Automatic annotation (TrEMBL):
Name of the protein in its database record: Molybdate transport system ATP-binding protein
UniProtKB keywords: ATP-binding, Cell inner membrane, Cell membrane, Membrane, Molybdenum, Nucleotide-binding, Translocase, Transport
GO molecular function: ABC-type transporter activity; ATP binding; ATP hydrolysis activity; molybdate ion transmembrane transporter activity
One cellular component term from this protein's GO annotations in UniProt: membrane
Domain (Mop): residue spans on this chain: 291-356
NCBIfam families: modC_ABC
Length: 356
C-alpha cells in the first residue's frame, strides 16, 4: 500500500518538483512555509492542474501516467478546503445524503450513520449551513468528503480559518479518523502543533521540493532539517495512560522505557496518547538528580549534536528506548559537559504536554 507521486509543474517564479513514495494509510502531513507548494501539490493530485506532468499511483491505481490523466471526477478523492463549501439550500442531512448518493452502492465504504457518528453530527442534521459554527461546518465538510468513499482524502489546512476553541473542539474527531477510516489522508498544515497532534508521517516541502519525509518523530528530531531549530521544536513520543492523579491533575503515562507525569485532564487507563516534549524543556544531567522540581527524568544517550541557528545554543538529538528526543541547550553547557555521540545522560523533562 503506497502512494507514488512524481509531479512537475512550472509556473513563473515557482516549480513544483516532487518525486516520492508515501504511505498508503494513516495521516501524512505536508508541512512547509507559505509558498512552499503544499496546496499546489494537492491541486495536482486532484487533477486541478492540467499542466502538471508526471505520474500519480494511488494504492496501485494510476490517476496519471505521463500524458494520460484522469479528470477530477474520475479520481476517487475527497477534498476538504480551508473553508467548508456546503450546499446552503440543503440541511446537514441533505448535504451528507447528496455525497452518499453519488457513489454507486457497490463502491460505498462508509455508511451515513458512521460518518454522522464519527464526526458527532447527530444533533445537527436538521440545521442549514448558516445555522452552524465554523467548526461544525468543517465537521460536516469532512463527513461529506468521507461519504464520497474516496481512495484518498486531501485536507488543505482545514482548521486554519477556525478560532482556537473551535480547533480544540474538532481535533479529537480528526485524531480518531485514521483508526475509523481505511484511507490515506494527506493533510496540509503550516502549524507544527497541529502536525504533532495528527500526523503519523511528515513530508517537508521547501520551494516546491521535498526536503525529507519520514515517521513523525524521526522527522521532528532530525538535526539536518529546519524543524529541529524551530522555536516550537519538540519530540512526540507514543505512550499509554496508566492512571490519573485527581489531586494534582497529573496523568501518569508509560512510554517504552519509563513513565512520565503530564499535566492534563483525566483520560481512561489504557488510552494511547502522544506526549510532546519541547526541545527547550529538556535539561541534561550527567547523573540522576534529587531534590529538583521536575517530576520526570529519563535515561538517554546522545545520538548527535549540531549548532543551532542561534549561536548561543546547541541542538542535541538523544535516544530514549529507541525514541529520538531533542534538547536545546546552551553551547557553553554542551562544551562543559563534553557531550558527544554515545554520552549517556539523564534528561530532565521540565514539562511535557499531551499532543493527543
Ligand atoms: N494560480 C497560480 N498561478 C501562479 N502562481 C501560483 C498560483 N497559485 C499559487 N502560485 C504560486 O505557487 C507557489 C506555491 O503556492 P502554494 O499555494 O502551493 O503554496 P503553499 O505552500 O500551499 O502556501 P500557503 O501555506 O500560503 O497556502 C507560490 O509561489 C505561489 O505564489
Amino acid at each position: 500500500m503506497s502512494l507514488h507521486i512524481r509531479l512537475r509543474l512550472r509556473r513563473a517564479g515557482f516549480t513544483l518538483d516532487f518525486n516520492e513514495h508515501l504511505p498508503g494509510q494513516g495521516v501524512t502531513a505536508l508541512f512547509g512555509r507559505s509558498g512552499s507548494g503544499k496546496t499546489t501539490l494537492l491541486r495536482c493530485l486532484a487533477g486541478f492542474e492540467p499542466e502538471a506532468a508526471g505520474e500519480i499511483c494511488i494504492n496501485g491505481e494510476y490517476w496519471q501516467q505521463e500524458r494520460q490523466s484522469r479528470p477530477t471526477h474520475q479520481r476517487e478523492l475527497g477534498y476538504v478546503f480551508q473553508e467548508a463549501s456546503l450546499f446552503a439550500h440543503l440541511t446537514v442531512a441533505g448535504n451528507l445524503r447528496y455525497a452518499w448518493r453519488r457513489v454507486p452502492a457497490a463502491n460505498r465504504r462508509i455508511t451515513q450513520a458512521e460518518a454522522i457518528d464519527w464526526l458527532g453530527l447527530g444533533e445537527l442534521l436538521r440545521r442549514y449551513p448558516d445555522q452552524l459554527s465554523g467548526g461544525q461546518r468543517q465537521r460536516v465538510a469532512i463527513a461529506r468528503a468521507m461519504l464520497g468513499s474516496p481512495q484518498l482524502l486531501l485536507m488543505d489546512e482545514p482548521l486554519a480559518a477556525l478560532d482556537s476553541a473551535s480547533k480544540a473542539e474538532i481535533m479529537p474527531y480528526l485524531q480518531r479518523l485514521p483508526q475509523q477510516l481505511q484511507m490515506p489522508i494527506l493533510y496540509v498544515s503550516h502549524t507544527l502543533e497541529e502536525v504533532a497532534q495528527l500526523a503519523d508521517h511528515l513530508v517537508l516541502l521547501e520551494h516546491g521540493r521535498c526536503l525529507g519525509q519520514g515517521a513523525l518523530n524521526e522527522m521532528l528530531t532530525r538535526l539536518d532539517l529546519p524543524l529541529a531549530s524551530a522555536a516550537s521544536a519538540s519530540a512526540v513520543v507514543q505512550a499509554q495512560v496508566a492512571s490519573f492523579d485527581a489531586d494534582y491533575h497529573l496523568l501518569s503515562v508509560v512510554t517504552a522505557a519509563g513513565s512520565l507525569q503530564v499535566p492534563a485532564p483525566a483520560r481512561p487507563a489504557g488510552d494511547q496518547v502522544r506526549v510532546r516534549i519541547a526541545a527547550r524543556d529538556l535539561l541534561l544531567a550527567q547523573a540522576p538528580l534529587v531534590g529538583i522540581s521536575a517530576l520526570n527524568s529519563l535515561p538517554v544517550t546522545v545520538l548527535a549534536l549540531t549548532a543551532d541557528t542561534d549561536p548561543a545554543f546547541t541542538l542535541v538529538r538523544l535516544e530514549h528506548a529507541g525514541q529520538p528526543l531533542l534538547a536545546r541547550i546552551t553551547r557553553k553547557s554542551a562544551e562543559q559537559m563534553q557531550l558527544a555521540a554515545g554520552t549517556e545522560l539523564q534528561a530532565i523533562v521540565k514539562t511535557a504536554s499531551l499532543a493527543g
